[in-house]
Structure prediction request, 462 residues.
Amino acid sequence: MTLTTIIYAMRDFLWGPVMLVLLVGTGVFLTFRLKFLPWRNLPHALKAVFQKEDGRKGRADGDITPFQSLMTALAATIGTGNIVGVATALVSGGPGALFWMWISALFGLSTKYAESVLAVKYREKNAAGEYAGGPMYAMKNGFRNQWLGSLLGFCFALFTVLASFGIGNITQANSIAGAMEDTFYVPSWVTGIALIVLTLIVLMGGIRSIGKVCEKLVPAMAVMYVLFALIVIICNFSNVPSGLADIFSMAFSVESVGGGVAGTVVMQAVKWGVARGVFSNEAGLGSAPIAAAAAKTDHPSRQGYINMTGTFFDTLIVCTITGLVIASSGMLGVLDGSGEPVTGVALTIAAFSTVLGKYGGYIITVGIALFAFSTILGWEYYGEKALEYLVKSPAACKCYRLIFCLISYLGATTALKMVWAFSDVMNGLMAIPNLICLIVLSREVAKECFEYQRKYIKRNGR
Prediction:
């Protein structure tokens, strides 16, 4: 058995039905454990994202603003999955897959909230005076069995470092280079050099530099993409009702479940919708809480609610809009020259092109480049903090930054198909200790949640 075969087998197992049930099941458990407060307080969370900092700033500990923390987390989550992943899910699972993406996101709100609460509650200060946190610190500092907590924390940090080079770098750089070469005929080596320079410029300033870039780049790119997508939806609005009808009818219906073939369609919709939803918003993987731990905040729950909105923006807004663009375009199910269904980025471009013509391809290419670059920045921070947990060496972290930047050139100039499978495996392995942590420390999450509800929300009537 070759290494490639082993990696593909591990990927299929880790992202099979068991893992998807565990990811969504943990979200369901936490939603009930927290008495649906993450859902009930979503308006409060959205308001907190956009309100200006107030008097709490003087007594709030952290390195970056809560908004910068959220944007850093969104930088890593809003990526090619919002453009390519949605298209793949709709082709593989049918229009009903979008409904199950919504379901996974709704319960993912509770998961993302709990992860971020624990990250802030158990964070530490490093030798440079910066905050460091995430699932590994929650496991180490929160578990009563310190040996088990340290072991799980070590495993999570190791898998995060490895994943940062794969899904956080090589695959993103490859997507940027491919899009730039296909649309603007830019040689991949030019893109690779540009990525090294731009990434180095941002990363040498550490988390404060990443936060400043992300708070400007992420909202700008998201607004640009959403505006053009809404133009396409409005122009194809006559097809929207039938598209929505397909989404709900193929997602869940008595008639579909009753038949053999239709039942298979429903199961495919569940599988691909949940898988792509989780893969897009990363709820349950434990990555976003690493950015949450750096936020200036006076209460773990405050940042928990703010970071929770990342799942809302990523899946319930951006992925939904991409899905509606495709569903209303009439391009879903269209065959290419070889007789295969158009899928991936080609399907999204085709959908945008029904209204915007050749400019649809330009918009998607620019979107992929910006989304993927922001993902590189966000995942570098995740990987660096995970490495810091493992080796406690500032010099090693600076070397990591340089190596990370250089590897982006490799991703831009080399087609490494196995890297995608390897990245899936590392993400799956990250999720396992993180889900254990969320369940074991759910009591602490509930304690912080109910205290914040009593002291801040009920007292202030909001």
In short: The chain has 21 helices and two strands. The mean pLDDT is 86. The longest strand covers residues 124-125.
